[in-house]
Amino acid sequence: MVGLPSMLKEVLSNVFKRPFTVKYPYQRLEPPDGFRGRHAVDWSKCIGCGVCARDCPAFAIELVEVEGRRYPLIDLAKCIFCYQCADSCPRGAITPTKVFELATWRKEDLLVKPEKYEA
Amino acid sequence: MSAIDLVIGPQHPALHEPERFVFKVEGETVVDVEPRIGYVHRGIEKALENRDYVTGLYLAERVCGICNVAHSLCFVQAMEDICGIEPPERAKYLRVVAHELNRIHSHLLLLGVAGELLGFMTLFMLIWRDREDVMDLIERLTGNRVNSAFNVVGGVRRDLDPKLAEDLKKVLERLKAKVKRYREVFAEDPTIRARTVGVGLLSRSRAIDLCAVGPTCRASGVKADVREYRPYAAYEDLDFKLVWYEEGDVWARLMARVDETIEAIELVERALEKMPSGPVRVKAPRTIPRGEGFSVVEAPRGDLNYHVYGKGDVKPDRVKIRTPTYANIPAVCEMFKGGYIADIPATLVSIDPCFACTDRVTLVDMEKGTRRTVSVTELLRRR
């Protein structure tokens, strides 16, 4: 039996609709609350225990010494954004932000580093 | 007429992942097929032995990107089995919600891909457009579109806020109407029926013999679903209805998935309705005692097993994973036989192959060229 394809109606109605996609760099979609993007670290809360570095599945966190104290240095190039570090942190110093556009020319931009840290 | 070899893969436009099939063809008819799996072997089982349970969970989740909730759920259930931890009631319901949302997006993905392979691009575009709504919901629930990092030992990581619960109901209501429309299209469209009805037949007895799992066996009339015969999380209270078809062809396998998508949407709705309040997580130890834990969940492609051996340390002694596509490979080889070359992509897509999952374990003897399948009963017997 050959008739009109049953999806013809949907096809025609979609011709006159706005595209479902958005023109990304010009029109942005805000990620939802709780989105796991770039890390924000409250350095005053950090006690330098190193649990985040121990529990990181991607080995993205290493502890560095700044002015005699240990702080985590997060390498976003290795990070898989699971936020186990925030889960493990006893002081809740690591929180997610909605920043997801992390492409950059320089690798150093991908480090979440303690204040006054110099590589 | 003598048979000639037709080699498809490891790189081929009809395959989405690298895998090699050598088809013996006589004219247009496939008489035999020899699969060669193992091109994307990543050594995850070995890697899991060198990681503690906390970080290993994220690795297990990455066995398969599409069914990641099933993998993490299965792994944490196996660990909870060893420790004897019972997650809170609310966590069990939240696990069902995440798991079923995962199933909806996985099935919609497959149905879209099936549409594309059958030459029905419109269906592919429309289904993938609607899948995006589910991805947004998953992102709001778990914090990421794909890799959810939602399940942990002793519960789940995030609670569901009432606003999102409302939106979930609203969006899924809309999606259900759309999926019902796609069901009509899959059931009646002459193009789809011409390409799928009677293609890639797998009889009920062969499906049982070859240990087919998931929608592949349910489309051949085998009523086996882990959610029914061994309910986990909160499925016992959710009044789950098993979907099955008798035909055993590509059409039945696609229809089983459309119906399962509708059932999954209804399961989420029921779970949201019945969800109790309370905590979502209990404290779990870092060290898992000596012992064995076993867990089966119904992943979108079929039953997924995790068998974890604890040695009283932060690291497991051994983790054994059996993924659904691996169990379906003997069945899909049976389906190819007697079919046409042109039906190969349609037959292959009907089992929803996920070769990257499959290649974590390979029991291929290269010299002899033999393969061995480990069945669920065999796994249970070794316990």
What this model shows, in words?
The complex is a heterodimer of chains A (119) and B (383). Chain A has 119 residues and is of the alpha+beta class. Chain A starts with 7 loop residues before the first helix and ends in a 7-residue tail after the last strand. In chain A, strand 2 (61-66) and strand 3 (69-75) form a beta hairpin. Chain A has 3 helices and 5 strands; from the N terminus they run αβαββαββ. With 383 residues, chain B is of the alpha+beta class. Chain B folds into 2 domains: 4-36, no CATH class; 44-381, Cytochrome-c3 Hydrogenase, chain B. Chain B has helices spanning 44-49, 53-61, 68-83, 89-117, 121-142, 162-188, 190-196, 204-209, 214-218, 226-229, 250-274, 324-336, 344-350, 355-358, 376-381, and strands at residues 4-8, 20-26, 29-36, 151-152, 155-156, 291-299, 302-310, 316-322, 364-365, 370-371. In chain B, the strands form 4 sheets. In chain B, strands 1-2-3 form a 3-stranded antiparallel beta sheet. A 3-stranded antiparallel beta sheet of chain B has the order 6-7-8. Chain B has a two-stranded antiparallel sheet with strand order 4-5. In chain B, a hairpin with a 2-residue loop joins strand 2 and strand 3 (29-36). In chain B, helix 4 (89-117) packs antiparallel against helix 11 (250-274), helix 4 (89-117) packs antiparallel against helix 13 and helix 6 packs antiparallel against helix 11 (250-274). The interface between A and B is medium-sized, with 28 and 28 residues.
What can be said about this structure in brief?
The complex is a heterodimer of chains A (119) and B (383). With 119 residues, chain A is of the alpha+beta class.
Give descriptors for this structure.
heterodimer; A: alpha+beta; Alpha-Beta Plaits; 3-stranded antiparallel beta sheet; 3 helices; B: 383 residues; alpha+beta; Cytochrome-c3 Hydrogenase, chain B; 15 helices; 10 strands; globular
